[in-house]
Write a structure and sequence with these properties.
Layout (H helix, E strand, L loop, with lengths): L3 E7 L3 E8 L3 E9 L11 E2 L1 H19 L8 E6 L4 E5 L9 E2 L7 H9 L3 H8 L8 H11 L3 H6 L3 E5 H9 L9 E3 H4 L14 H7 L8 E3 L2 E6 L8 E7 H8 L8 E5 L3 E8 L10 E6 L7 E8 L3 H9 L10 H6 L8 E3 L17 E3 L7 H27 L5 E5 L6 H11 L2 E5 L4 H14 L5 H7 L2 E5 L5 H17 L6
Parallel strand pairs: 1-5, 5-12, 9-10, 13-19, 19-20
Antiparallel strand pairs: 1-2, 2-3, 4-7, 6-8, 11-12, 13-14, 14-16, 15-16, 17-18, 20-21
Helix pairs in contact: 9-14, 10-12, 12-13
């Protein structure tokens, strides 16, 4: 009888549930978007209760579409947007405040204070992460200081902290009625509270951010049986959890040191498998966990994190009304032969790797009377490719490994114009897999490994298939010109806020 494994893929803009047969064939899929809440400039929130409601809805939707019940599933895995911070009441399950999303910048005063105190080297050495508003520790510190009674509740364990994986796992395994309060190493690595060497919460970092240990989840492997689910998946083993980018690395079968993938989603995230040794970056990259599968030793990665990629297309749609749907951007951008010397730096939340300029803000440069909305659309797509190139250059310099090709995944990779420009500006082949659901596949592989549905990593490598290879076709002179203009544009975005 074929094994059916499900994956909850909880992202920045939507929640999805996928069911695969024998980790190969998609049997069912359902998706639901959630609200993006912007209380002030730079503040971004989600309603964690809405996300849990949507999770239950997409599970029910996928099962119904396939004519299945929860009992037909042999296991599920979870993958999630990282760093987004939830604090909730253990007794009632109610969030104490809207979730602070990974791109939220309200913690900048705290981050600036830590930087002034000179703790950047300590943070990088212990966690692989620079001082930045991106990570969860500062967000949790803000919640404890600004939500009434939150600190007192956290100190006695009545308030629980988690990234979205912890929030979902707790609810899936019973919530107030015995839910498991856990996280996996990949998500814990993004809090800026976990020691990369010990894979445990670090006492000195807890003191630095003034975080009570009682509110923190237990840290577990990315692939193991955490427990049985309650409704709506009664009895189904919950057996895998990874942050979305780590799941995509596994789903892309980047199993050897030097293997690289780039995921084009709300943001853009490039990860390189560096094997059993963490490489601490001097080029603006993040050192992080790739995964820990069961009792096997942990595997590490270098990461280049880009805050705004697909979110820029959504912004053109929702804020400017240049397109009616996100899929329209390729046709609009393709209606002009080039960018018309227009460059778009989408530093809406500052710039992440490899620049790390918190004070940068978005700009459109090079506008003339000749410029049209098509040029702006093309510049928006090209911005993702330029940022990816900058991250990849830093990664190759850091690792000493020259990249032969770049594996890509995520919703934006369906855009052939973007993928060809990416290959052109990198001067490397870009490889798109047959199955673009690599994030969900990583969670499914983790659950399959834990439950014996697949035997090992060789099975994952055997399942990967290429759909298309994009070969560079741009001449060197054009590439050099474009990169010089991009470099000029990006420096114009620096230090926009005081």
């Amino acid at each position: 009888m074929p094994r059916l494994i499900g994956a909850i893929d909880q992202g920045t803009t939507s929640t999805r549930f996928l069911i695969l047969e024998d980790t190969r064939t998609l049997r069912a899929f359902d998706q639901r978007e959630h609200r993006q809440i912007y209380p002030q400039p730079g503040w971004v929130e989600h309603d964690a209760a809405e996300i849990w409601t949507n999770t239950q809805a997409v599970i029910h939707g996928a099962l119904t579409k396939a004519g299945l019940t929860a009992g037909d599933l042999s296991a599920i895995g979870v993958t999630n947007q990282r760093e987004t911070t939830v604090l909730w009441n253990r007794a009632t399950g109610a969030p104490l405040h809207p979730a602070l999303v990974w791109m939220d910048t309200r913690t900048k005063p705290l981050v600036d204070r830590l930087t002034t105190q000179g703790v950047g080297d300590l943070l990088r050495a212990r966690t692989g992460l620079p001082p930045a508003t991106y990570f969860s520790a500062a967000k949790l510190a803000w919640l404890l200081e600004n939500v009434p009674d939150a600190r007192q509740m956290a100190q006695c364990g009545d308030a629980l902290f988690g990234t979205i994986d912890s929030w979902l796992i707790w609810n899936l395994t019973g919530g107030p009625k015995g839910g498991r309060h856990i996280t996996d190493v990949t998500n814990a690595a993004r809090t800026q509270l976990m020691n990369l060497t010990t894979l445990q919460w670090d006492d000195e970092l807890l003191r630095l951010f003034d975080i009570p240990r009682a509110c923190l989840p237990d840290i577990r492997a990315s692939s193991e049986i955490y427990g049985a689910c309650a409704a709506p998946l009664d009895g189904v083993p919950l057996a895998g959890a990874l942050g979305d980018q780590h799941a995509a690395l596994l789903g892309q079968a980047c199993l050897k040191p030097g293997d690289v993938k780039n995921t084009y989603g709300t943001g853009c995230f490039m990860l390189m498998n560096t094997g059993p040794t963490p490489y601490f970056s001097t080029q603006g990259l993040i050192t992080t966990l790739a995964w820990k599968l069961g009792d096997a030793p942990p595997v590490y990665a270098l990461e280049g994190s880009i805050a705004i990629a697909g979110a820029l297309v959504q912004w053109l749609r929702d804020n400017l009304g240049l397109i009616e749907s996100s899929s329209d951007i390729e046709a609009l951008a393709s209606s002009v032969p080039d960018n018309g010397d227009v460059y778009f730096v989408p530093a809406f939340s500052g710039l992440y790797a490899p620049y790390w300029h918190e004070n940068a803000r978005g700009i459109i440069a090079g506008l003339t009377r000749y410029s049209t909305k098509a040029h702006i659309a093309r510049a928006a797509l090209e911005a993702t490719a330029y940022q990816t190139r900058d991250a990849l250059i830093a990664m190759t310099q850091e690792s000493g490994v020259e990249i032969g090709e770049l594996k890509v995944d995520g919703g934006m990779t369906a855009n052939n114009l973007l993928m060809q420009f990416q290959a052109d500006i990198l001067n490397h082949a870009v490889v798109r897999p047959h199955n673009l659901e690599t994030t969900a596949m990583g969670a499914i592989y983790a659950a399959a490994l834990a439950t014996g549905a697949i035997a090992g990593l060789d099975d994952i490598a055997e399942r990967w298939r290429m759909e298309r290879r994009f070969i560079p076709a741009m001449d060197a002179e054009t590439r050099t010109h474009l990169l010089a203009k991009w470099s000029k544009a990006i420096t114009r975005s620096f230090d926009w806020t005081d």
